[in-house]
Amino acid sequence: SQQFLFMPNSRLFVHGSHKSAGYGRWLDALEIHLGWQQMRDGRRTQDFGSMAVRNEANRSDLLGLTVQGSAIESDSHALTYGIDIYHDEVSSSRIETDLATGNSSVVRARFPDGSTLTNVDAYVHDRIGISRNLLLDVGLRLSHARVDLAMTASSAAAQISNLDLSGSAGILYALSDTTDLVANLARGFRAPNIFDLGTLGARPGNRFNIANPDLGPEAVITGDLGLRITHSRGTVEAVIWGSDYQDKIVSVFTGMVDPGGRDIVQSRNASSLSLQGVELSGKWQMGERHLFDMTMNYTHGETSIANQGTEPADRVPPLNGRFGWHYERSDWRAGAQWTFADQQNRLCARDIRDPRINPAGTPGWGVLNLLWSYNPGSQWRVSARMNNVFDRSYRYHGSGIDAAGRHLRLDVEGNF
Question: Looking at residue 194, what DSSP letter applies?
Answer without folding.
Answer: H
